[in-house]
Amino acid sequence: MNDILNAVLLGIVEGLTEFLPVSSTAHLLIAQDLLGFQPPGEVFPIVIQFGAILAVVAVYWRRFWDVLITLPSSKESQNFTLGVLVAFLPAAVVGALAHGFIKEVLFNPEIAPKVIAATLILGGVIILIFERLAPPPRFMDGDRLPFKQALQIGLFQLLALIPGVSRSGATILGGELVGIDRKAGALFTFYLAVPTMFGATVYDLYKNRHNLDMHAGIDIAVGFVVAFIVALFVVRTFIGFIGRFGLKPFGWYRIAAGLAIIAVLVLR
């Protein structure tokens, strides 16, 4: 029962943080440590992340469906699909090649908390700077980004392979840097999340297939469903929130969270 409760709590954390520029992976790792919870099968975090990603499919299902049924005949649908695939390619290649290093070094329990604290603070500072210095946007439609800008967002997404670097934060801020409107970048980030997290989930399940059992499956399923439900709310409100308030609140939050982690590490 305790494992089920932990799975629910971690599902809530994942659903709340996956699309916010605060790093869901960092929050999951810290929450697991605070709860004293050892994720089952070693794939728990990545699979419940995919639960949150499916919230994007649920919210934007009509857009995906329209692209699917018009793909053979519509140039616009073909360009949309190619743009997402071009952006996805860097993470697919580098993630597969560096999988062992990422899991064994960057996510090492002795190293990860220090890396997370540093990247949270650095990311917060960058957000606050970009909010003041970002160039005027030239690309306003997240459904129709040129291939060059889509690839650039994909390259910025590589930063999220480092614990504590938010995938959405890296892609939205990176998009702003190359002239993409903040709301358009957030929308494209939602689209890009689907193949990225689907690929990561399938790959991690395959790599850890021998470690899974029925008990692990129940905990993962609970976390998956909770993350999906909570993320539905976030996906529906996030673009409107940043359109009104910007990213500055998340910058200050990241700095505060990083400093809190450093304080805990020092006290320990």
In oligomeric terms, what are we looking at? Answer: single chain
CA-based shape: globular
Distance between the termini: 29 Å
Biggest sheet features: none
Please explain how this structure is put together.
With 268 residues, this protein is mainly alpha-helical. The protein has one domain. Helices cover 77% and strands 0% of the residues. The chain has twelve helices and no strands. Helix 3 crosses helix 10, helix 5 packs across helix 10 and helix 8 crosses helix 9. The longest helix is centred in the C-terminal third of the chain and has 32 residues. The chain is globular. The model has no long low-confidence stretch (mean pLDDT 88).
Quick recap:
Helices cover 77% and strands 0% of the residues. The protein is mostly helical and 268 residues long. The protein has one domain.
Explain the layout of strands and helices.
Elements: H1 2-17, H2 24-35, H3 44-59, H4 61-70, H5 75-97, H6 99-106, H7 112-133, H8 147-157, H9 167-177, H10 182-207, H11 214-245, H12 248-267
Keywords:
12 helices; mainly alpha; 268 residues
